[in-house]
Amino acid sequence: MDAFYASVERRQNPTLAGLPIIVGADPKGGKGRGVVAGCSYEARRFGVHSAQPISRAYRLCPQAVYLRPNFALYEEVSARIMDTLRSFSDKLEPMGLDEAFLDLSDKAADFEEAAKIAKRIKEEIETREGLTCSIGIAPNKAIAKIASDHQKPDGLTTVTPDETPKFLRPLPVSRISGVGNKSTEILEKVGIKTIGDLASFPAGRMVELFGKWGVRLSEIANGIDETPVVTSYDIKSISTETTFEQDIEDRRVVIETLDKLARDVHARATQDGFLWRTIGIKLRFEDFSTFTRANSRNDYANRLDIVQNSVRSLFSEFEKDRRKIRLVGVRLSNLRRTDLSQETLLAWAKN
Predict the structure, then answer these.
(1) DSSP 49-102
(2) Among residues 93, 99, 126, 241, which one is catalytic?
(3) pTM of the model
(4) In degrees, to the nearest 5, what angle opens at C-alpha 123 toward C-alphas 121 and 127?
(5) pLDDT at 143
(6) Which residues are within 8 A (CB) of 69 and not within 5 positions of it... i.e. 6 or more apart?
(7) What is the mean pLDDT of the chain?
(8) How far is CA 343 from CA 71, 252, 266, 297, in A?
(9) What value does the mean pLDDT take over residues 241-247?
């Protein structure tokens, strides 16, 4: 989806048309704590991005309209959009509230036919929700993700297997999901500026720089991604993560970001009718050391406050660690399917 939170807010209040919109924490005149949850393209022209400290966003664009997130509304709209996507393919993997992968292998004979389906998807979403989306069609998920960002907003980009090397080669390495400012800086020090540079760089050296993640970066740069589209029938866990634009020292900013991710995974789980027993977090520090922590309940749950409280408790172990944090993630696992009536009763049960 294109600038999902801001676009939903603009749909609710058409007087915001054309204005820079920033959804997130209260900036408090540039002294606020917390992060940007989402922003319009008008705000992005000033350098504002998701997961950016709200204080920096205010310095970049003080004239923007600042709104607190309305997650209940975003989750409601997201659920309808996911239902629309399922009408085109049951092989759907949601990624947060505003993004999803669809496997069209059984629906389209070739990339041309897939593009026709993509156009219908865009038309359906715009007709039903009054919102635009950008779609990338490619041989695998990693390239499709890059392609979906290629012509935003309201874009449609098709990359066939033969076109993949030519498409990737000139793009900056930052186009690869998870490559933020810190990673870009490290890569530039060894002469890597484009995905083409990365593709020809020795994989062994990438491992020295980034560990196991270096292997995946090399594979993506060479158009390789064997990750399947995981449907709700196959899901063993639900997770989401974000890489900060700049490494973050302020723990209150990190906590607010974890809270947003907790809402994302909770919405995905409840939309697909899952209960869970295990809640986990992932942290990656400025030195690329990565830690995961999790705890499990004796019973299954589906309440948002349980996820949020567990995430905050797990993060408390790291609050006094003064290293800056570059990535955070939240995961739900030990899943169990439930019907809607069970889910509703559990949501109402407070004790």
Answers:
(1) -TT-BHHHHHHH-TTSEEE---HHHHHHHHHHHHHHHHTT-S-EEE-SSS-EEE
(2) 99
(3) 0.79
(4) 120
(5) 97
(6) 5, 23, 24, 37, 38, 260
(7) 91
(8) 19, 32, 12, 17
(9) 84
Query: All domains of the chain, ordered by start, with CATH?
Result: 4-67 (3.40.1170.60), 71-163 (3.30.70.270), 169-221 (1.10.150.20), 237-348 (3.30.1490.100)
Determine the Cα angle at 98 with ends 156 and 342, to 5°: 135
Q: Is the pLDDT of residue 340 over 60?
A: no
Residue 151 identity (one-letter amino acid): Q
Question: How far is 223 from 244, CA to CA, in rounded Å?
Answer: 25
Measured at the alpha carbon of residue 75, what is the angle toward residues 73 and 81, in degrees to the nearest 5? 105
Find, among 24, 18, 23, the residue nearest to 8 by Cα.
23
CA dist list (Å): 19 to 3, 60, 71, 100: 13, 15, 21, 27
Q: How confident is the model at residue 351 (pLDDT cuts 50, 70, 90)?
A: very low
What was the pLDDT predicted at 61? 97
Q: What does the CA dihedral 291, 297, 301, 305 come to, rounded to 10 degrees?
A: -60
Q: DSSP state, 250? A: -
Per the annotation, the verdict on 99 as an active-site residue is yes
